Amino acid sequence: MSENQIERIRSTGKVPLFIDGVFVDSETSDFIELNNPATQAVIAQVPVATEAEMQRAVESAKAAFVEWRDVPTIERVRYLFKYQALLKEHQEEIAKVLSEETGKTFADAMGDVFRGIEVVEHGCGMTTHMMGETVENVARNIDTHSYVHPIGVCAGITPFNFPAMIPLWMYPLAVVCGNAFILKPSEQDPLTPTMLTELFAEAGFPKGLLQVLHGDKRQVDFLLDHPDIKAVSFVGSVPVAEHVYRRGTHNLKRVQAMAGAKNHMVVMPDADKEQVVSSLVGSSCGAAGQRCMAISVAVLVGEATRDWVDDIKTALAGIRPGAPGDDGAAYGPLINRKSRDRVRELIQGAAAEGADVVLDGSDCTVEGYPDGNWIGPTLFDNVTVDMKIYSEEIFGPALCVMHVDTLEDAIELVNSSPYGNGTSIYTRSGAAARKYQYETEVGQVGINLPIPVPAPYFSFTGSKRSFFGDLHAYGKQAVRFYTETKTVLSRWPETDVPEGPNMTISMK
Ligand code: NAD
Questions:
Q1: 189, 192, 216, 338: residue to mutate for ligand 1 pocket, most atoms within 8 A of CB
Q2: Interface confidence (ipTM) of the complex
Q3: 0.90 cut: is pTM over it?
Q4: Domains and CATH numbers, the chain
């Protein structure tokens, strides 16, 4: 990288903002401490951007948009191709930093970056997605065609759990559609977005198209209230998503807010037991369960699956957390102390709620890392809907098991959940899979696949309280979210003879 911002952060101890094409130290006196989740060592201080800095970012983005909207899409795409190549070239470097600040294993961190690169790759086909529609002769001698236009300055607010992938869901697509973008990344892992931004600048995008402001609720509310910001993309927890959606739409902005979840995997008695068990282990504890598409509830159908809990227990007991760099670790620490304590409390309260605590990871320790935010793999059996461990998103390496008699009961259970992010069914029966896929009220369904995250040419289609808005992230829906359609009706009469006024609404 041309100017290594990570080295700069290590020497100044402060994360810079990115305003008007330049990395700058904030003038704020208000900072948030960034800690290594495996050790609590202080990595850096994250600035809470000042009002003047945020205003400057908006002004710069507005000015950049005026020029950028005139750049042909194919030219914008060329910058994106360069960006994609740079992200690939630096994928490992980014993953190392990502792994340090989130605690993810290196392999998982590589995946985080890779899934983001895939979105950039999809954006490289934007020339086709920006095509409008044409119909000749909608009425005699009248033709109609539509154009797709960028909307202006857009903003994105991202969560801690995918610091590469989720920012990359947003600004590459918004920018290649012709917009300018202001990113407010999670204050819990701002180094990864800093690296992504540095490469964005290196790809040669004109200054001002991407601005990065750090902070918390204050910065988010500033973006939601600013009249010059036209659209807001948000990913995070349900209460904050609801706040962002309400406040943004109250201010008449376009808002898409992807939120939290509780995802069920329905296991039919005819499913392949080994496949079920290994899928449950990976999808419940991968990334320490800190994924919005993690499977947190296994719904075992029928008597024949009752004793599968023993197999799940054995498999979960066979994995362990560890610090980045520990090749035997299945996952890392939780993001911060507060999350660790919250998950611990939920686990420790589960027995009193009436659940069978089959595996208790609340007292987990990792040798050499006494201060890490560790939670061991945790398994609850005989969970019911009234328990907190079921109704709350645990966001930790914990799996709830529930038992039902029939597929219909399983569908009723899943449909009664307020969340609708993802679900899956494991079965050998096409009929059961088809019924589940059709009747279940969840935005993303996996069949013999645990985490059905769509590739970037589809969209990420969570529903119910896992999503507020109508146009979803990435894919064709993101193009519609970041653009406006203009429709032109035209007539070129062959004679100069006036037709006289038409007093009706019909087109002849
Ligand atoms: P979070 O809601 O705490 O924070 C998300 C962003 O909102 C951050 O940038 C944060 O600074 C900001 N923020 C926090 N509190 C705020 C407030 N009161 N007002 C305004 N802004 C505020 O989420 P998190 O803990 O960073 O991420 C985990 C959550 O995100 C989980 O619930 C997870 O399921 C969800 N998530 C959802 C998806 C999805 O696509 N549906 C993807 C990833 C994560």
A1: 216
A2: 0.99
A3: yes
A4: 5-259+466-487 (3.40.605.10), 263-447 (3.40.309.10)
